[in-house]
């Protein structure tokens, strides 16, 4: 059995062929798609976070709204860029969203990817400390977040408060018990996957990673997952970790599917540079008739290693079409692979 969810980048554009013309469209359709996904039997609704872009940049109002309108599906991010985050305020927002959803929040965080503007985190008021890189700043913010999510008091109470305080040091409120164990790190490299395991975070691995060795994407990603699991065991954590991978997968079941994605049937991994000094490998798109998809996906080593599969969806094609995309995988592909 495998958990299957969707991952939306939340794009909108006021163009003739877009079904998602505005920020309002993007947010409201995201809620509708999560509700539809739950009704179809999917397990997760996840959203990418980008700042300074026509995409979803403020995840917690959206996650809280989905949590209030659903009852079973996991809700989460993939991922929040920690260079931009105040970990204290983030802990408050995350705690509230998790309580509204009754413990269904799966919070994916990371250093983030190159953004729309140069060093965008500066405009949010953040600077690396002297001798610290922006990646190290993100990891420092993360360590603070993890600490406060444990729920231990750390702040000295005012002796004359407006409202009565409980005894002892105060913690961030609202506190949601168990959320600390549902934090995921989006790792682009094997070393950051190991770091995430050492801190007790789950692993979220996307459709691209640092090219470390030249093997096919799914092989490298499987190696990353195995390195994560070994580091987890070495760290002595008692609970079982979660691992997700993202894929673009489209079952071609009708003429519209073929018109949109038929050309991707010959897709292959490719290598490029998303940063000047970082060579990355990008995973292929899977697009084929369901029986062919079953054969192809059975050979994907990283999917086999993961407990959770996130399907990237073309959100600008609208809720109805994306519901069809999810339903096609859940109905025609997942059972044949033993995922259902």
From TrEMBL:
Please provide one cellular component term from the Gene Ontology annotations of this protein: cytosol
Enumerate the spans annotated as Luciferase-like domain. 8-251
Per its UniProt record, what Pfam families does this chain match? Answer: Bac_luciferase
Protein name stated in the entry: Flavin-dependent oxidoreductase, luciferase family (Includes alkanesulfonate monooxygenase SsuD and methylene tetrahydromethanopterin reductase)
Keyword list (alphabetical) reads: Monooxygenase, Oxidoreductase
Keyword Chloroplast found: no
Among InterPro entries, the record links this protein to:
Bact_Lucif_Oxidored, Luciferase-like_dom, Luciferase-like_sf
Q: Could you confirm whether the keyword Oxidoreductase appears in this record?
A: yes
Source organism (scientific name): Saccharopolyspora shandongensis
Molecular function in Gene Ontology: monooxygenase activity; oxidoreductase activity, acting on paired donors, with incorporation or reduction of molecular oxygen
């Amino acid at each position: 059995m495998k958990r299957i969810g969707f991952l939306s980048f939340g794009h909108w554009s006021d163009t003739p062929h877009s079904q998602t013309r505005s920020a309002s469209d993007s947010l409201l359709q995201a809620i509708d798609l999560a509700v539809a996904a739950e009704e179809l039997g999917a397990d997760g609704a996840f959203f990418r976070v980008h700042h300074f872009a026509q995409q979803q940049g403020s995840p917690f109002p959206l996650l809280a709204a989905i949590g209030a309108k659903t009852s079973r599906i996991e809700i989460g991010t993939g991922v929040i860029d920690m260079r931009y985050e105040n970990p204290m305020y983030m802990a408050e927002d995350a705690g509230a969203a998790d309580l509204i959803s009754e413990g269904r929040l799966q919070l994916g965080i990371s250093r983030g990817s190159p953004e729309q503007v140069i060093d965008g985190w500066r405009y949010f008021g953040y600077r690396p400390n002297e001798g610290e890189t922006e990646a190290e700043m993100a990891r420092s913010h993360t360590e603070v977040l993890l600490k406060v999510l444990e729920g231990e008091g750390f702040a000295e109470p005012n002796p004359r408060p407006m409202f009565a305080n409980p005894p002892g040091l105060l913690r961030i409120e609202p506190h949601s018990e168990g959320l600390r164990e549902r934090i995921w790190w989006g790792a682009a490299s094997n070393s950051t996957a190991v770091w995430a395991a050492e801190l007790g975070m789950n692993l979220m691995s996307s459709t691209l990673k640092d090219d470390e060795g030249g093997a096919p994407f799914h092989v490298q990603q499987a190696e990353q997952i195995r390195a994560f699991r070994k580091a987890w065991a070495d760290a002595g954590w008692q609970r079982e970790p979660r691992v997700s991978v993202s894929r673009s997968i489209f079952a071609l079941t009708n003429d519209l599917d073929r018109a949109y994605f038929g050309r991707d049937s010959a897709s292959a991994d490719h290598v490029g540079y998303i940063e000047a000094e970082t060579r990355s490998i990008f995973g292929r798109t899977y697009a084929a008739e369901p029986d062919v998809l079953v054969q192809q996906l059975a050979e994907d080593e990283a999917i086999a290693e993961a407990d959770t599969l996130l399907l990237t969806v073309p959100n600008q094609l609208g809720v109805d079409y994306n519901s069809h995309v999810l339903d096609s995988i859940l109905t025609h592909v997942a059972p044949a692979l033993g995922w259902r």
